[in-house]
Amino acid sequence: LKCIDFMDQTNCSDASRVGVRCNINSFVSTVSKSMVCRGRRQLCDDNMENLCFTTSGGSCFIHKHRFCDGSEDCPDGSDEVDPMCLHLTKNQCARKGHPDMKLMPLALPWLGDGFEDCLDGKDENGSS
């Protein structure tokens, strides 16, 4: 059974199906991989699931928080060697849109860009 509003794609109980973690209707939730980078109806309060980019070589389209995370998500590994991965923060945080809750550095251009990348928002309040 599919829901017209895609809410059946949230609150994944199977961790292997989680694409991003975000607030949905002000509650912490998850969105399935099948809804990430699809540009469909907004599920996350901040539209986190659609914050996706093409790697600099143009070979792969992935979620922002999959760049420079130590895991090759693109078939050619371009998400880990993208030029933005050359300049990372020394401080680490749990990335808001990453399915894993481990601490990771952020790409420097993400600091103060008006979008909270860290779960605690410290990348926007100047403490990263």
Question: Average pLDDT across residues?
Answer: 84
Elements, N to C (H/E): EEEEHEE
Helix-residue proportion:
under 10%
Described by strand count, sense and barrel closure, the largest sheet is: 2 strands, antiparallel
Strand arrangement across the biggest beta sheet? 1-2
Overall 3D geometry?
globular
The end-to-end span amounts to 43 Å
Beta-strand residue fraction: 15-25%
Question: What structural class do the secondary elements suggest?
Answer: mainly beta
Runs with pLDDT <50, length 5+? none
Radius of gyration: 14 Å
By DSSP (H or I, 4+ residues per run), the number of helices equals 1
Question: How would you name the oligomeric state of the polypeptide chains in this document?
Answer: single chain
Number of strands: 6
Q: Main attributes?
A:
128 residues, mainly beta
Describe this structure in words.
There is one protein chain. The protein is mainly beta. The chain has one helix at residues 78-81, and strands at 18-24, 27-32, 52-54, 61-63, 93-94, 103-104. Strands 1-2 form a two-stranded antiparallel ribbon. The protein has a two-stranded antiparallel ribbon with strand order 3-4. The chain is globular and about 35 Å long. The N and C termini lie far apart (43 Å). The mean pLDDT is 84.
